[in-house]
Amino acid sequence: MAEIVIKNVAKSFGAFTALHGIDLTISDQEFMVLLGASGCGKTTLLRIIAGLETATQGEVWIGGRRVDQLPPRDRGIAMVFQNYAVFPHLTVFENIAFGLRMKKLPNDAVTRRVERTAELMHIETLLKRYSGQLSGGQRQRVAVARALAMEPDVILMDEPLSNLDALLRLEMRAELKGVLAASKTTTVYVTHDQVEAMSLADRISVMHSGRIVQAASPVEVYRNPAARFVGSFIGNPPMNFLTATRAGTGKWSVAGQTVDGPLSDASEIDFAIRPEDLAVGAGGIAMDVRVIEPLGAHTLVTANVEGSVFRAVLDSDTAIRTGDTISLIPKPDRIRWFDRDTTKAL
Ligand code: ATP
To answer: Check: CATH 3.40.50.300 for 4-233?
Structure first.
């Protein structure tokens, strides 16, 4: 059992607060992704779980043990970083064996574990090579194999694929997902790449300015963003937002149309809809088409609605031209609303 419990963890660097009272529970064997823009605090949180950084306040528990006072080697974790940290002067075998030798495992056990994890990562033919002679993708496989060989309760990964080219990233992503699911470890994975996050995670913690804004399954953060920030950060293109003005109890005026919405007393709230949740039809939101981008399966339309940029992903055979005024109807069950003051979902 390696549940990770983070209780009210805060971190300040001088006067700057990088993390504000984070509470998060990561279940045993869960794949949790920390996702957010550069500087939001995800690496700091990972380093606090690892013990490479000390929290200013709060507690970290792994597998029912409080670990925030323990050094990294006593926490039952293994780490994989962006820059691989593979030793170039050691063979692949010795790189994978490194942690096991530190733990003074008998030689035959070391050999067994190295061979098994090398096979898992498809690098069994490279064991005698020096790591300095390997490609980036091969080195990253060695780094993952070295972490897996430790048979840790928890694997912590910080942007492990970001130095690989696009095709390799895709290949490694699928492999990592398979290998980690089979290894039954609890994984915490830092990335700023939302596609990577969506494809790997059991749950995503979306971070913003040192806080977790939402921790939920990929589908949930996509479909039901807990706050406006999540809707604007997740999805490419992101959600569209328009001002909704109160037009009666539960009635809102959005770009000249009256739409049923929440029972808020506010005079203005935000209306939100994903670009793919719109269909051409009379009596919808009127917009001036600015740019049309055929993407094969779909066409991305960038338009202007009352001075705001608005994007729609439409069927590729929709007959429209730049300069047209079109009317798009939002799917009623896909409309989301956000409070103006708290920015939270209504
Ligand atoms: P990135 O994706 O760019 O790595 P991140 O979300 O992982 O970003 P962190 O590295 O956790 O962000 O940093 C969070 C904030 O804390 C940043 O504003 C950063 O400048 C600051 N910070 C991190 N480490 C230190 C440090 N040692 N001293 C001062 N400030 C720091």
So the answer is: yes
